[in-house]
Amino acid sequence: GDNNWNDIVSWTVNCTIQAEESGVTAANVDEMLGSDDPTIQNLLGVTGDLGQAMGLNNDFCYQVISQVGNYGEIYDRNLGPDTPFNLARGLNEQYYNGGLLYAPPFR
After folding, report:
1. Rounded Cα distance, 63 and 57, in Å
2. Residue 89 near residue 95, CB atoms below 8 Å
C-alpha cells in the first residue's frame, strides 16, 4: 500500500477531530490563526511541519477546516439532526463526551 497516502488520509481525519475538540470551526478558523494555544497553532500550520513531512503545505488542516468544517460540522451536515438520517452522534462523539473520537497530538 501507499503509506504516505494513508498518513494523509489519517491526519486529515485527525484534523477535523482535533479542530472540534479545540473549538475551531469553519466560521472561526481565520480568527483562530492568531491563537496563542500551541495545539491550535500546530493544527492550523502556524507552527510545526506535519504537512511538509507528508508532502503537503503545512496549512493543510486550515484548508480542510475552512472548506468543510470540523468533525462535528461534517457529521451534522451529512448525518445529523437536520438531515433525513437524523442520527445521534453516539460513538462518533468526542472521547470526553462518551464517544470514541480522539486525535493524537499534532507535532
Report:
1. 9
2. no
Indicate the DSSP class of residue 58: T
CA-based nearest residue to 17, from 39, 38, 35: 39
Q: Per-residue pLDDT tens for 41-58?
A: 999 999 999 999 999 999
- Which residues are bridge partners to 94 per DSSP? 101
What pairs with residue 101 in β-bridges? Answer: 94
DSSP code for 97: G
Q: Answer yes or no: are the C-beta atoms of 80 and 87 closer than 8 Å.
A: yes
Lookup: cell for 4: 504516505
**pTM of the predicted protein model:** 0.94
- What does the domain layout of the chain look like in residue ranges? 3-97
Query: How far apart are the C-alpha atoms of 50 and 73, rounded to whole Å?
Result: 23
> How many Å apart are CA 21 and CA 33, to the nearest integer?
16
Q: DSSP class of residue 101?
A: B
